[in-house]
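Late entry, evening session. Most of the bench is empty. Finally got around to the prediction I had been postponing all week. Sequence below, unchanged from the version circulated by S.P.
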Amino acid sequence: MKTSSGSKLDFGRVALLLVLLGAGWYFWDSPALWPLKLLVVMMHESGHALATLLTGGAVDRITLAANESGACLSRLPSGMMAQVAVYSAGYVGSALAGAFLLLATFRFRLRRLVLGAACLWLAVMGVLYAGDGFTLAFCMGTALVLGLAAKFLPDSGVDMLNLFLAAFTALYVAFDLRSDLWHGTVSSASDAALLAHLTPVPSWAWAALWSFVSLAVLGLFARWSLRAAPPENMGYGPQRLGRIR
């Protein structure tokens, strides 16, 4: 199979990604996956926080709870478009995090740097914005685990961990959109409901937009990331130039 640019997909990576997605789906309710769910919730709340800061607002605190809920308490900017960006940044931010994790690991071979960046992100968010002891403990504990993994795991182990984190993030985003936005009545405290009050657009339309954007981003980055690396003898690797005598 080839992409539009002519690069072949790496079927080994594709198969591994599908296996990890299936494993995450099958073991979704396992307590072993609870820390990963909280990690994605932290990605979601970090998306709100980053959008708040970029649009001129201020972040007071972020809290996580054992029931996998989270909150980003912020002083929002006054403009409507800025507030739309902040409210939308949670789900889209989670999708972007998983997409860039996949891309940085397999397209740019930044496997250890990816885990190191995740470690730094959690530590900074915990120190600056953790609103309670549970959130601080989760951020610092997870940062320590990811830092140790980046230092001591072999390259193949780091690749596997990053791919699983990316696959699980994508799966969680899909489940989150389904459960929070499409099943039943949308909660009055959800991001979609807040946007529906802020704009004339109904919550289901925001749900449709977020679903499309999130899945499109994940699909595009996954396709780019899962291409096979170009062979060195096809002009992509280092070579000696000049006339042969």
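Two things to note before I forget:
Residues 1-6, 230-245 have pLDDT under 50 and may be disordered.
The CA atoms of residues 9 and 227 lie 4 Å apart.
Will write this up properly tomorrow.
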